[in-house]
Design goal:
649 residues, 44% helix, 6-stranded antiparallel beta sheet, 17 strands
């Protein structure tokens, strides 16, 4: 795991390229505190920089930028290639060349594969996570590439006559040509999703490289950029659903165990201490159980707890850890802990980001980083195997309301909203003893209010957009705002997938997963120099998941059916069966309590007017409603995170 940065200038510069690229990588030292390097071609005005977090081959043989043995290619690389030893064997078996390996780093393997096969074929052979910059001295072409699922970040764009790229925006800000004008269209999208969706960034003319793509920029063609996919999630999902596995439950269970087991084993490759996040939920418990099965020593596991019982899963993680025999560490956090983290969030995330679970994610990463240098995580299981409650609720709501005329649905939605989230929660708690655990959920009031507003949607895309939107009409809040098109697929989603659940899982996988979940984990962990690895996002596991029929993911009113069955081979069912909670904080209560003064300052009406980004009235109305007990914390957290970020600009 590392950080990369670079630029190409089209004009003669008043600055020293070596000095500038050094400043850029110094801004991301947290991504690679162990080593650094730069490479500059004064003639071509190309500069590449690298910060290294040493995981494989800790010697100088893994130093970057790395030059190919033929001297044609210069590579900087952030990530890990888990199967690089197998790639070496294949290179040696199929090539006429003799490979005099300098060390055993995956960077050297990747560079040799690129020189032998070309970048596209090399990436197709690799299993891993990565953001790559490759300079071809012969063709004078720069190529950038990002891994299949978007685990590793990569920003790029033109600022005047300079093309620049980096793992994080803070590195771009160190370049003297960086302009940094806030994009109000991106701000509008941010208020809808609580993150800025790919390919946009918060700044004009700076973009995120879409996952599974190679960007090509020729020095001769100046500003002409091409994007070429080397792997397509859409194609994988479409092909998988058109060629569903015809096997029984036991065969499917065996296929998943082998595929996920191989992924876990491959991701345990490291020359440094390694551990895992453990929430006590299905996904992380399964990853840890498969790690422990393949380890002689106890796996080091880490979890975060809360004093508020509705949000605390630490007690479940402790039981699972004891059963599996891991070396377990836990940390209980308070509102003061959250308060202490909040000022760091704008610096961690570089652009506005408002998934409040960023706070416990950072805290658990910081705790883990004092014990290990690499952790495995259970992210991705929900999107691939139908784990989110919205998949279950949306089908149930559709089945119960499709027959109703639109006017009746509107009346029903209004009626549901008349009961406050707090009263719904109390009703849910009073009935919890009479309802089987698989049919219950936490924070039910907020979810009922969300769904009540979606009873009048006309198709699944509208339904999905409504479910994931924080502000349903964000253009009403942003001065000069409008919404860019975020459609990633070119054909109607109902023509690709026959199930509502699979349509939502697909949309989550290409939007929410990379732009929220993976962004959150990468920045939080790399902020404390910790590498995260995600076995569920091994592309072979992903391809298998999309060949499974829906009933192997969602069955008897529960998601992740096949994952549960596999987990129950390692952990007793009684340790796992409970309502899904998610990795969240009691932000709603804290904003009315210990965070109120901080929020009041950021949401001050005069301040909002002077800054000139938001219309104050709807924001002030939402804040007053929240203080009355009508939860608006999800919407307000986005405003607060932008305000906190703007304060640091």
């Amino acid at each position: 795991m590392c950080g990369i940065a670079g630029f190409i200038s089209n004009t003669s510069n008043s600055f020293e390229p070596s000095s500038v690229i050094q400043k850029m990588i110094d801004m991301i030292i947290h991504r690679g505190p162990d080593d650094s390097g730069i490479w500059v071609d004064e003639r071509s005005q190309v500069a590449l920089g690298h910060r290294r977090l040493s995981i494989l081959d800790l010697s100088s043989a893994g130093h970057q930028p790395m030059i190919s043995s033929c001297s044609r290619f210069i590579l900087i690389f952030n990530g890990e290639i888990y199967n690089h030893l197998e790639v070496r064997v294949k290179l040696e078996a199929t090539s006429q060349s003799l490979f005099n390996w300098r060390g055993h780093s995956d960077t050297e393997t990747l560079l040799a594969a690129i020189a032998e096969w070309g970048l596209e074929k090399a990436l197709k052979e690799c299993i891993g996570m990565f953001a790559i910059a490759l300079w071809d001295k012969q063709e004078e072409v720069l190529k950038l590439a990002r891994d299949r699922l978007g685990e590793k970040p990569l920003y790029y764009g033109w600022q005047g006559d300079t093309f620049m790229f980096a793992s994080e925006l803070k590195a771009l800000k160190a370049h003297p040509d960086f302009i940094g004008e806030i994009n109000r269209k991106s701000l509008t999208l941010f208020l809808r999703y609580n993150y800025v969706p790919t390919p946009y960034s918060i700044y004009n003319d700076i973009k995120k490289l879409p996952s599974g793509n190679i960007l090509k920029l020729s020095l001769k063609s100046k500003k002409l950029i091409s994007l070429v996919p080397f792997w397509s999630f859409t194609n994988v999902a479409k092909t998988g659903q058109s060629k569903l596995l015809s096997c029984d439950d036991e065969e499917a269970l065996s296929l998943l165990e082998n595929s996920l087991g191989d992924a876990v084993e491959g991701q345990q490759l490291a020359d440094v201490p390694l551990g895992a996040f453990l929430s006590g939920g299905i996904d992380s418990s399964l990853v840890v159980s498969m790690m422990q099965k393949r380890s002689i020593l106890p796996v080091k596991t880490f979890t975060i707890g809360f004093d508020e019982s509705d949000y605390d899963e630490a007690r479940y993680a402790k039981v699972v850890a004891k059963h599996l025999g891991t070396e377990h560490s836990e940390l209980y956090i308070s509102p003061n802990d959250a308060l202490n983290v909040i000022p760091q969030l704008p610096l961690l995330y570089d652009e506005p980001f408002a998934d409040s679970s960023q706070i416990p994610t950072f805290l658990v990463a910081r705790m883990a980083s004092s014990h290990v240098k690499v952790v495995l995580s259970g992210d991705g299981g929900d999107e691939l195997f139908g784990g989110y409650n919205r998949y279950l609720w949306s089908r149930s709501i559709q089945n119960k309301t499709d027959w109703l005329p639109m006017s009746a649905r509107n009346i029903l939605g209004s009626s549901l909203k008349k009961v406050s989230p707090q009263l719904w929660d109390k009703l849910n708690n009073s009935l919890s003893g009479f309802i089987p655990s698989q049919y219950t959920t936490s924070q039910v009031g907020d979810k009922i209010h969300k769904i009540a507003g979606l009873l009048s949607v006309e198709n699944d895309l509208e339904l999905y957009r409504g479910l994931v939107s924080q502000w349903q009409n964000p253009i009403d809040l942003v001065i000069g705002g409008s919404e860019e098109n975020t459609d990633i697929i070119s054909e109607p989603i109902d023509m690709i997938f026959k199930d509502t659940e699979h349509r939502m899982m697909f949309m989550d996988s290409i939007t929410y997963l990379p732009d929220d979940i993976l962004c959150k984990v990468d920045r939080a962990a790399m902020g404390v120099s910790l590498e995260t690895r995600i076995p569920f996002l091994n592309h072979k596991v992903v391809e298998l998941a999309w060949r499974l029929p829906l009933h192997m993911k969602i069955r008897n009113g529960q998601g992740k059916w096949l994952l549960r069955e596999l987990l129950f081979k390692h952990v007793p069912r009684k340790f796992i069966e409970r309502p899904k909670q998610g990795f969240s904080l009691p932000i709603a209560e804290w904003l009315r309590g210990p965070l109120r003064e901080w929020a009041e300052e950021l949401l001050n009406e005069s301040r909002l007017k002077n800054e000139g980004y938001f219309y104050p009235k709807p924001i002030r109305n939402a804040w007053e409603e929240h203080l009355k007990g009508n939860n608006m914390h999800n919407q307000l957290w986005g405003i607060l995170m932008f305000q906190a970020w703007l304060e640091k600009e």
